[in-house]
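<derive_structure_tokens>
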Amino acid sequence: MSQPECLYSLAQVDAALETMAAKINADYAGASSPLLVLVLLKGALVTAGALLPKLKVPLEVDYLHASRYRDNSAGDELRWLAKPHSELAGRTLLIVDDILDQGVTLREVVNYCLDQQASSVSTAVLVHKQLTKPAVVEADYVGLTVPDRYVYGFGMDNNELDRNAPGIFTL
């Protein structure tokens, strides 16, 4: 079995989240209404928990749960497990996700929010995986980049385990 390799330490992840938060704070400073942060479960739970205290703008938090992976590493059709409880129409949204790889899930979630008449939708991801084929959507805020390898930790799972790993790792 392969030994894990630490790509980013907990301190490096925190520094990336500080930088991301500073950009979000600058972009939403003086907004006329609270930012609605939608956390994409399960993976973004840890990212959101670390990012939200760094945000200085008025905000509300909700969640959604949509997945293409169903306990395996290859994505297929998007399945909605929970839609946001908040009214999205006329709201300024920030979707927080753990990883952007192909971008299909994030694109579908953004489209859903726009279909619900959100006034604007931006996206923040902890990591962007550098694939040879570009993602179908770009994130507005990106913390870190990772190579095209299976990564886990800081919310991302390794066969549903290791979401609590203190950093970002690969095998």
User: Anything to note?
Assistant: The chain has one domain: 10-66+79-149. The mean pLDDT is 93. The first helix runs from residue 10 to 28. The two ends are 9 Å apart (CA to CA).
